[in-house]
Amino acid sequence: MLITLEQLTKRFGATVAVDGLDLRVRPGRVTGFLGPNGAGKSTTLRMILGLDRPTSGRALLDGRPYFSYAWPLRTIGAVLEAKAAHPGRTGRNHLLAMARSNAIPAARVDEVLQLTGLTEAARKRTGAYSLGMGQRLGIAGALLGDPEVLILDEPVNGLDPDGVRWIRGLLRDLAAEGRTVLVSSHLLSEMQMTADHLIVIGNGRLLADAPLEEILAGHASLEDAYYTLTEGSALR
Amino acid sequence: MTMLRATIGAEWIKLWTTRTVWWALTAALLLMAAGAGQYALYARNGDIDATSAAEVAALGLSFAQLAFVALAATVMTGEYSAGTIRATFTWTPSRPRLLLAKSVVVAAVTLVAGTVVGFVGTLVAAAILDDGSLGATAPKMGLYLALLGVFAVGLGAALRGPVVTLVVLLMLIVVVPPLLQIPDVGALNAVADAMPGVAGERFLTGNSYAGLLIVTAWAVAAFVIGARELNRRDA
């Protein structure tokens, strides 16, 4: 499934957060989404998911906006914030409500709990979860509908080395199955190990959209390449 | 329709899987028993001119309704204070459908729980007043609380903040009406009569269908404004 941004623009008052982004995110590979803080990454992801309305332009999933999907969780899985669950609700109940909202069988809840290693913590309130467990719960929710598209905003934040490695493997596997995986991150070395393709933005504008090797070419590391690309856009 | 049913099902699970609902319903029951008991004592001493147990219970509701209203408002404002609203909108991108589902869940719970609480209040009042006629006020209390619940959910969607929503609700239901009524000026009294709490009390104690209509109008207006605000603003 193809994610298409067409002249996607978002203004907050006088500030332009996202400025005419035109790009395609293709299936079958992990696409890394990079940029300094305030570059417009999260705003872009929120517009893809219909949470923020574009000032102009469009964000489409296989030609259709997010809100036109009757059961969106069965097509698009997203991890937006580390803790998307109410702190007083158990992880399992959170996922059960989520499953019900998209007519996903309750049995799938136990599957994703197992898949994310949360089976033992499933009956604990999410307020007692560590940051890493919160991330795992978010990923469990994203996988609930067995979606073709996965959108993850900073999924490795707060994870221990085992967790980081687990996510890397998971994202690579999901892409290998032909799914579309779009993942934003600040951790460049991690991106270098996970992504096949990179999209770099700064000040809401597209700076690069190319395979990892192409961006790395002539640089010692992704970090070097990144600083060359984003020079001048880190501070406004 | 299947989509609405799924959204209602999810909201139903969400309502019953935090402690808020139990605190609120327990508080409602205690406030009702205490309120009805207190007014029944006043009535027995001739301090107020309520005579039947049902009428006294309706007066007792003026405290208990606040617990219901707080619960209803939290169903919407809690999404903003806990930061879960974005996740919720990714599950259910249609914001009016989400608001409708929340309203249905709140209305169903307050209708049933409100009727039970109303009946308990009537029993307490009847025991103190030695009045055997229980009347049919309890289901009417449930109906009034269900409408008030929809009003609170819609207002929560429009205002988002838990504190501001609760303050506005308290102002409209409890604080402002007596301030308007004290000078006893016709025009001010008419405004007070149009407030949801006063209109509800007229429906409960005076059987006024105009009162019921006014409470319904508040619920519908809050729902429409809430849905519009959810659609208009970014999550």
Automatic annotation (TrEMBL), chain A:
Gene3D superfamilies: P-loop containing nucleotide triphosphate hydrolases (3.40.50.300)
Keyword Transport: yes
Domain ABC transporter: 3-228
This protein's UniProt keywords: ATP-binding, Nucleotide-binding, Transport
MF term (GO), any: ATP binding
UniProt-listed Pfam families: ABC_tran
InterPro entries: AAA+_ATPase, ABC_transporter-like_ATP-bd, P-loop_NTPase
Protein family: Belongs to the ABC transporter superfamily.
Protein name: ATP-binding cassette domain-containing protein
Provenance organism: Paractinoplanes pyxinae
TrEMBL record, chain B:
UniProt KW keywords: Membrane, Transmembrane, Transmembrane helix
Classification via Pfam families: ABC2_membrane_4
Keyword Amino-acid biosynthesis: no
Transmembrane segments: 21-41, 56-78, 99-129, 141-159, 166-188, 208-227
Name of protein: ABC transporter permease
Species of provenance: Paractinoplanes pyxinae
